[in-house]
Design goal:
It contains 15 helices and 13 strands. By secondary structure, it is of the alpha/beta class. Bound molecules: pyridoxal-5'-phosphate.
Length: about 375
Amino acid sequence: MGDPFLPYGRHHVTDDDIAAAVGALRSDWLTTGPAVERFERAFADRVGARFAVSFSSGTAALHGAATAAGIVPGDEAVTTPLTFCATANCVLYCGGTPVFADVCEDTLNINPAEVEKRITPNTRAIIAVDYAGHPADLDTLRAVADRHGLALIEDACHAPGAEYRGRTVGGISDLTVFSFHPVKHLTTGEGGMVTTDREDLARRLKRFRNHGIDTEARERLAAGSWAYDMVELGFNYRLSDIASALGLSQLARLGQNLRRRRQLVHRYREALAGLPWVRCPVERAGVRSAWHLFPVRIDEEAAGCCRDHVFRVLRAANIGVNVHYRPVHLHTYYRDRFGYCEGAFPVAEKAFSALLTLPLFPGMTDEDVDRVAARLAAAPREDSR
Ligand SMILES: *Cc1c(COP(=O)(O)O)cnc(C)c1O
C-alpha cells in the first residue's frame, strides 16, 4: 500500500463554516444581502483598508480593479511574467496591453528597476503580484508609480494577512485584489475581493460588478423606489450571500491559518537544510509572508538531475508537487498574439525551470512535511520511469 495522495494545497472547512452557509440558505437573502456587507466590512477591517468590494472570483476582481484604475484600449500596464495568467489577462479584458518586466532573483517578485524601463507614455498602471505570499517591493513600486502618475494594483491572491514594513497587505496599494478559490487561504468556493482606501474607486467597483447600474436592488427596496440607471458597461460579478457567509466564517480563522503555515515552513527549512541542491524561498527583512506556497528551486547541476525528474519521482510517491508558474509570456496565446519567445525575461525563465512547489496547507501534519522532505532527499537517486 502506498501513502495517500498529498495535494499541494487544500481548503479547510469546519462545522461552523457549514452552519454559516446553511444560515444564509435559510435567510431571506441568497445574494447581495446583509452577509455580503458584513463580509466586506470585516475583510476591510482585517487588512486595514477603508473599503472592500466583493466579486464572484479573483479574476473578476482583477477585471474590476483594472477597470477602476482607468485602463482603456490603447493603455499599457506593467506586470510580472511569473504569475497565474489571470493577472495579465485583466489588462486584455480592458482592451489594454500587458507589458512584462522581469523579477528579482531572490523573491521572484517584479523588479521595480525593470518596471521603470518598461514605462511609456501609454502606461496606466503597475500590477504587482505578492508571489507565494511574499509582498512585492511595495515602497519602491509606489515611488515609481508616483513618479510617472500610475495606479498601483496589487494582486494579493497569495497574500491575505501578509505584512510589509508594519502594514498589512490590502491597505497599501491603490487597489489590492484577493481570491477565495479553495486552494487560497480562505475560500467561498469561488470568490474575490478588491480593497481600497479611495471612496470613488470603491463606488466604481460596486457599480462595475452589478452591470454598471448605479444602485443595488437592496438600496432600491430600502428607498421604496424602482428607479435604476445603467451608466457604464458592467457585468454580473456579484458574490452571493451564501458564499459571503462562508467567507466571513473562514476569515475568523485567518490568523490561525497563517500561524500553522509558518510552522510548517519552519519545519521544511530544518528538514531540507542538509540538501545544498534545494533552495528554499526567502523572506526579506521587514516582511512577513502569508506563505500561500512553498516553492523551492532545484539546482540541476548540484542535484545531478533536473526539476522534472524530481517532479516525477514525487508524483509517483503520491506527493502533489506542482510548478508555479509557467511564465505568462510563454503561453501559446501570448506568443501568438505578441510574438514573445524564450529569453525575453531571463530571471523568471531560469527560476521557472528550477521551481517546484511542495505541499503546504494548514491541515498538513508535521509527519506530512517529513514524508515530503525524505522523498525529496532521495529523489536524485530514484528511477523516474
Ligand atoms: C488564484 C489567483 C488568481 C485568480 O483567482 P480566481 O479566484 O481563481 O479567479 C489570480 N492571480 C493569482 C496570483 C492567483 O493565485
